[in-house]
Design goal:
Layout: E1 4-7, H1 13-22, E2 28-33, H2 39-45, E3 50-53, H3 59-66, E4 71-75, H4 82-95, E5 100-104, H5 116-131, E6 135-140, H6 146-149, H7 152-158, E7 160-163, E8 169-170, H8 175-187, E9 196-200, E10 206-207, H9 208-219, E11 224-227, H10 230-236, H11 242-256, H12 266-271, H13 278-284
This protein binds NADP nicotinamide-adenine-dinucleotide phosphate.
NADP nicotinamide-adenine-dinucleotide phosphate (NAP) is lined by residues 9-15, 34, 38, 54-57, 75-78, 104, 106, 117, 140, 142-143, 146.
Length: 292
């Protein structure tokens, strides 16, 4: 019988790509969605995908979603209760006898002194390691797709994106490459990647000027990077909760100081092809950056 793989957060940026990457790989994909009305898009993606209701605030849905599951792609949302959610999902995996957990963490999760968000990722990693479940941890760098999710509106409407990272270079990764790695790990024997931690980055670290050039070339418009001072970024985040403002400002500081200007060869080693460049990302997503 084929494995049943539960993908948590299946409507999100990373997990929706994991669902796609698992299609046609001989496993049954169970896609965890917060509410049933979100299932239609996933079914359209692949009729063989089985959406399952999975709402972390309703524990009865959590245990039901894990019933009969062999392997799990576990992603915690960017929320203040992400550690509690991670632990809740790991407990459910253990109770239902899951044979493999692939956890989405973050690059530098164990760096010192580190950032708040990475301390939270590390807490979930440690809980998973102590659970006794066979696991693989994926620690991706910043997503190229952040230019759509966080900066997409200003790119489409003003032909510009604003960041407080100066001339810092960043090892952005395309989430399709994270998904390809996850699908590989979830469809090869568990022992092949058991208890491994993989740090995943794009092929090179790029400056924001290079990102702007890639977006300009792909869209045929001039898209500019506007470097803003940290105080302005903090001001723009005054409505955000404290933990989120702190996390984002810490990240911008790290980026500005070239703290994410390194790369690893791991994606290519695991999937036998190079990760997408920022230029390829911009080309592939150019319609989503179209002016509005
Ligand atoms: N962005 C980056 O550059 C970056 C880099 C490294 C690591 N990460 C890590 O990546 C993770 C975020 O991934 P992402 O961008 O793919 O997230 P995302 O697009 O925000 O998706 C989050 C998913 O979780 C679901 N969800 C949220 N709260 C839920 C709840 N209470 N019950 C059930 N489902 C719930 C969402 O469902 P709905 O669609 O219903 O809301 C969605 O499917 C975080 O752990 C972050 O730290 C991000």
């Amino acid at each position: 019988m084929s494995d049943t793989v539960l993908v948590t957060g299946a409507t999100g940026t990373v997990s929706s790509e994991v669902v796609k990457a698992l299609a046609g790989r001989g496993v049954t994909v169970r896609a965890g969605v917060r509410s049933a009305d979100k299932a239609a898009d996933l079914r359209a993606l692949d009729p063989a995908v089985q959406p399952v209701e999975l709402d972390y605030t309703r524990p009865e849905t959590v245990q039901a979603a894990f019933d009969g599951v062999n392997r799990v792609f576990l992603l915690t949302p960017f929320t203040v209760d992400q550690v509690a959610i991670g632990k809740q999902l790991i407990d459910a995996a253990r109770q239902s006898g899951v044979q493999q957990v692939v956890l989405l963490s973050g690059a530098g999760a164990d760096a010192q002194p580190g950032t708040q968000i990475n301390h939270w990722h590390r807490a979930v990693e440690v809980y998973l390691a102590q659970s006794g479940l066979p696991y693989t941890v994926l620690r991706p760098s910043g997503f190229m797709q952040n230019f759509l999710t966080y900066n997409g509106d200003s790119i489409r409407q003003q032909n510009a994106f604003y960041l407080a990272i100066g001339e810092g270079r960043v090892n952005y990764i395309d989430v399709r490459d994270i998904a390809a790695v996850a699908a590989t790990v979830l469809t090869t024997p568990v022992s092949a990647h058991q208890d491994q931690i993989y740090t995943l980055t794009g092929p090179t670290a790029v400056s924001s000027q290079e990102v702007a050039a890639a977006l300009s070339a792909a869209t045929g418009r001039t898209i500019s990077y506007v470097a803003v001072p940290e105080e302005a970024a903090a001001q723009a985040l005054t409505q955000a909760p404290d933990w989120m403002r702190t996390s984002l400002l810490e990240l911008y500081r790290l980026y500005k100081n070239d703290g994410a200007a390194w790369v690893t060869p791991t994606v290519a080693e695991l999937i036998q092809r190079p990760p997408h460049s920022i230029g390829q990302f911009a080309q592939d997503y150019r319609e989503q950056f179209a002016a509005s």
